[in-house]
Amino acid sequence: MDDVNPGQTDRTTGKTVAPDRTGGAREPMVVIEGVNKHFGDLHVLQDINLTVGKGEVVVVLGPSGSGKSTLCRAINRLETIESGTITIDGKALPEEGKPLAQLRADVGMVFQSFNLFSHKTIRENVTLGPVKVRKKSKSEASTQADALLERVGVAAQADKYPAQLSGGQQQRVAIARSLAMGPKVMLFDEPTSALDPEMVNEVLDVMVGLAKEGMTMIVVTHEMGFARKAADRVVFMADGQVVEVATPEEFFTAPKSARAKDFLGKILTH
Amino acid sequence: MLDILDKYDVLGAFWMTIKLTVFSAIGALVIGTILAVMRVAPVAILRRLGAFYVNTVRNTPLTLILVFCSLGLLYILQVNLTDPKSPTSIVDNNIRWAIVGLAAYHAAFVCEALRSGVNTVPLGQAEAARSIGLTFTQSLREVILPQAFRGSIAPLGSVLIALTKNTTVASIIGVAEASGLMKEIIENETASFGVFFIFALGFVILTLPVGILFTSLSRRLAVKR
After folding, report:
1. How confident is the model over B6-35, as pLDDT tens digits?
2. A79: alpha, beta or left, given left = phi > 0 and alpha = psi -120 to 50?
3. Whether A119 contacts chain B with CB within 8 A
4. Which Pfam family is an annotated match for this chain, by its short name (chain A) (predicted)?
5. What interface predicted TM-score (ipTM) does this complex get?
6. Domain-located, residue A215
7. A172, A152 Cβ separation under 8 angstroms
């Protein structure tokens, strides 16, 4: 909690202006404006507006089916949107092809089910992007991969295959794989939901470390502890809408909306 | 029975069978991979073209395809695959057209084996590939196809065995492979079980190791998830 400045609430003038821990509005990194999407009859994203500033950590909370994962996946266009715009570092998301691939290279994504390349070793998983997309030499990429694997604590497993690692280790490799691209922003889509309880913290520790280093992060999660500890802002979604945006302090102690009160009541009583 | 082996070039005929098999298999693998990529491409017209090829060729008897290659393309349309003035042009043309026909026919089966392999690759693999900035082609080459090939080794083995035996159809356009020689021997000598046995054994010797090899490969190279 110590890195959340309670004074920032005064500066939180609206949803689209990102507050800053040290004061003053941040430069926007991800800008989501008027985004809509349907899955059949289900209006899964309803006129979503959200701006995430450079270096900001935004945690998206909400009940299942609230559209939070869809929003996260829309930011690197793994889900298409029907209307509205999403810009990343001033550039609008391209429709398809090379420009989209180039933009995705700047946006790290960590999945619930890890999705490490099953036929490649841990080191190859981390070097593939840098070699093929960033055109680095094999040896340069390999050195970088070893450093990243060291940082997430799985250096000893570099020559193994994903299936030989525990879930927690796989997810940390997945984070290293994203970091190897030098992303401007990292998206986490329920990164700990598929993990055994005893492995959740090893992944969250890596994420807290990233947040402290100033990485821009959008994290969809059910880990309230992480939200309290690392988030600059909490975005609460329900039924495809952004219901509430607040600092973790505000959100957990005095939620404004009835939906948020209901949600917190259900998860915090146990 | 053994005098047959002395009088006729049985090994030579099987050598032709092997050559037909190897060259057609390489051709079928290349064309089949291209077809499989077309069938999973994000472009609708490519998908339709791929599906059209597979459905047409797979449902046409191989005999028809080889006769079309020989009579239709070679003799009527005069599409030569060798120098028509060379003294062996008839034989060479038939062999090459047989390889083309066999490759084109089995490509449809290779395509479907690969496509079933593509379906063994979880969607998350493609999403992860795209999310690190790989293009469609790069994701196919680096992530999807290597796993799809490993997932389709067993069905590809079945296609290769079928291809080996289907080379016998090439004898109808005058390629001197094993079954052609068998017919020749039966015409010249009397049909005996020995003749059948020699040729059946020959094919078993060719195909059995292929089956064993592909089964062990599919086990060893299986992608562990």
Report:
1. 788 888 889 999 999 999 999 999 999 999
2. beta
3. yes
4. ABC_tran
5. 0.84
6. yes
7. yes
Of the residues B120, B132, B224, the best mutation for testing chain A's interface (the one with the most A CB atoms within 10 Å of its CB) is: B132
Give this prediction's pTM.
0.80
Q: Which of 36-75 (B) contact A at CB < 8 A?
A: 42
Residue A84 is part of a domain; what is its CATH number? Answer: 3.40.50.300
User: Would an 8 Å CB–CB cutoff place A88 in contact with chain B?
Assistant: no
Number of separate domains in chain A: 1
What range does the domain containing B170 cover?
A: 1-221
Q: A133 in contact with B at a CB cutoff of 8 Å?
A: yes
Alpha carbon distances (Å) from B60 to B35, B56, B74, B99: 17, 6, 19, 17
Walking along chain A (270 residues) 10 residues at a time, the average pLDDT comes out as 39 41 69 92 92 94 91 93 92 87 94 95 95 94 94 93 94 95 94 90 92 93 90 93 92 91 80
- Cα–Cα distance between A171 and A178 in angstroms, integer? 11
CA–CA separation, A92 and A108 (whole Å): 17
Q: Residue B145's domain is classified under what CATH number? A: 1.10.3720.10
